Each structure stands twice: as C-alpha cells, then as structure tokens.
Amino acid sequence: MNTARAAKLITATAFCAALAACGGGGSRGGSSDASDRYDPDSRTIWDLVRSNESPHTSVGVNKYLWNASLEVLDFLPIQSVDPFTGVIVTGYGTPPGGGRSYRATIRVADPALDARSLKLSLQGPGGGAVEPGTVRAVEDAILTRARQLRIRDGRL
After folding, report:
1. Closest by alpha carbon to 121, among 146, 87, 84, 70?
2. What is the pLDDT of residues 37-66, one digit of tens each?
C-alpha cells in the first residue's frame, strides 16, 4: 500500500469515527439542512477509499487540525461536517466549568499544519460577539493539540 493511499485511508477512518461519535440523535443530532443540500452525483468520503482513476484525489485539509478541532471543542454538539471543504459547524454548548454558551464554525483551509490554515469563528448567545482573547485561546488550544497529535504519529 503506497503512502498516499494509506494517508487517505487514515483520514477517511478518522472522519468516519468523528461522524459516528456524533450520531445517535439527542442534542447532538444532525441538521436538517444537510438533507436539503444532498446531491446524488456529489462525491462522498468513500470515494477516497475506493480505487479512483486519479490517484491524486485527496481531502485538502490537515488531519491534525481537523481532529484537534473536534477534540478541543467536543463539548459543542456537531451540526455538520464537510471534510472536502474543511468546515465544521457546531451548535451551542457550554464549556466545562464555564457559564456562557458558545457555538463555533471551524474551517481548516489548507493541508499544512500552520496557524494560517485554521479559521475559527465563535458566537455567544443570540449571535453575540466573543472577545478576541477567547477566540485566540481556543485557536491556540487547537493548534497545540494538533502538534501533539502530529508528534504522537511520529511525523516531526
């Protein structure tokens, strides 16, 4: 198995595990908007695992930033994820030990493990603004966790 295919398989497995963890209804149920946008001709995550005509097809996001975002913000209910565009949208949730609820939109814009690849938007109750220091702290936590995941994989 070549390295590119192995990376695709690992990425696809991580995305499936993240999606499976979000299932089951309740407060973490999916958004009905996703079914409104379904296009049967669109590509799916499984297209990466199957043999393709083009071996250069891949997901253009950094798996460490993606997984770190899901881990750091695991207290927020996932509303939608799109690994092809790198967007994770959450619902409102309260951090452990916190009193204010937040919702987040995360975009992993590049396959590089770089601060410029991570775009984070936080909103308070009613769409209220969140202090820039809070956003910076969450970004730093995601970047730190992504680096830890990368080190754990032995890819220095």
Report:
1. 87
2. 444 455 555 554 454 545 555 667 899 999
Report pLDDT for 97. Answer: 86
Sequence-ordered list of residues with C-beta below 8 angstroms from that of 33, at least 6 positions apart, any chain: 80
Cβ count near 94 (within 10 Å): 12
Q: How far is CA 26 from CA 22, 30, 77, 82, in A?
A: 10, 9, 10, 21
| 87 Cβ contact list (under 8 Å, min separation 6) | 80, 81, 105, 106, 107
Residue 93: beta bridge partners?
102
Round to whole Å and give the CA distance between 105 and 91.
9
